[in-house]
Design a protein that fits this description.
single chain; 175 residues; alpha+beta; 8-stranded antiparallel beta sheet; two-stranded antiparallel sheet; 10 strands; 39% strand
């Protein structure tokens, strides 16, 4: 066989494989329809399926970058909007400053789902809390800090209502 013909066939088969891999069926018609109804002006949409089988749309809108989560039937599960600190309700900002003055804000988000009111999430890293000096510090893990009970933590996730009321505090080693 002619060398250029083999090269052409190889290129065409590679293109076919690449385009086939990209059209993995995400999103299916039900998910796409639900997404378009909720976010008709979304731009830069990228689709992925996470480990749990949830279909996630990563996209941009005027009020920020978002992630919308759907099941395979097109049911909306929740949406995360990444926001900047100044877009938090005043009560949230006040609470964080009064109660976590040594903390650094790592990330801020709005969280919406069909069953609960809008929530704001503030993710903090804390570098200066007191800790039990008898517990050995791992020099390989630079982000790990301690809380006042000597538990290893990396991040605190504070959840607030839209009115600024603290709803929950969660500790995570990794976020």
């Amino acid at each position: 066989m002619n060398r250029s013909l083999v090269t052409t066939l190889l290129i065409l088969s590679t293109w076919g494989w690449a385009f086939g891999a990209q059209s993995s069926g995400l999103p299916n018609g039900k998910v796409k329809k639900a997404f378009k109804q909720m976010y008709p002006v979304a731009t830069e949409v990228d689709w992925k399926e996470n480990e749990e089988g949830t279909i996630v749309a990563y996209f941009e809108m005027e009020d920020g970058n978002k992630e919308a989560y759907f099941d395979s039937q097109g049911n909306w599960l929740h949406t995360v909007t990444y926001i900047i600190d100044k877009d938090l309700p005043k009560g949230v900002i006040r609470y964080v400053k009064e109660n976590y003055e040594e903390a650094a804000i790592y990330d801020t988000r709005k969280y919406q789902d069909p069953d609960t009111p809008l929530e704001f999430k503030v993710i903090l890293t804390v570098e200066d809390w007191e800790y039990d000096e008898e517990k050995e510090e791992d020099p390989e893990e630079e982000e790990v800090v301690y809380d006042e009970f000597s538990d290893w933590i990396s991040f605190l996730v504070l959840s607030f209502s839209e009115g600024g009321k603290l709803l929950s505090v969660e500790k995570f080693k990794e976020y």
